[in-house]
């Protein structure tokens, strides 16, 4: 018969005041400070990444300009050289 009777479960009573458990203003202030710090760090990181990307683009443009100038100089110096044929080599020296 013991199995048929239910024993009442004790109901928990609050032993701690709810105001003491919540984070309160200090917890809110700490979270706001952390959020602001993360936003500032992300902003600074994006600025630095953008700066590196722009520097690389400028470097690529300068390299392309130098290559174009070198190619122009090479074609100019080749055009200024006299055309020497195999049979004419001895005639120009004399």
Automatic annotation (TrEMBL):
Compositionally biased tracts (Basic and acidic residues): 83-94
TM region positions: 20-43
Keywords per UniProt: Membrane, Transmembrane, Transmembrane helix
Stretches the record annotates as Disordered: 69-94
Superkingdom of source: Bacteria
Name of the protein this chain belongs to: Uncharacterized protein
Species lineage: Bacteria, Bacillati, Actinomycetota, Actinomycetes, Micrococcales
């Amino acid at each position: 018969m013991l199995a048929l009777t239910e024993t009442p479960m004790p109901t928990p009573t609050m032993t701690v005041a709810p105001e003491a458990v919540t984070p309160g203003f200090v917890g809110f202030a700490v979270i706001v400070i952390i959020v602001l710090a993360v936003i500032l760090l992300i902003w600074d990181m994006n600025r630095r990444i953008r700066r590196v990307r722009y520097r690389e683009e400028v470097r690529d443009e300068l390299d392309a300009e130098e290559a174009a100038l070198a190619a122009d100089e090479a074609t100019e110096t080749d055009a200024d050289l006299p055309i020497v044929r195999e049979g004419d080599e001895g005639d120009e020296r004399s």
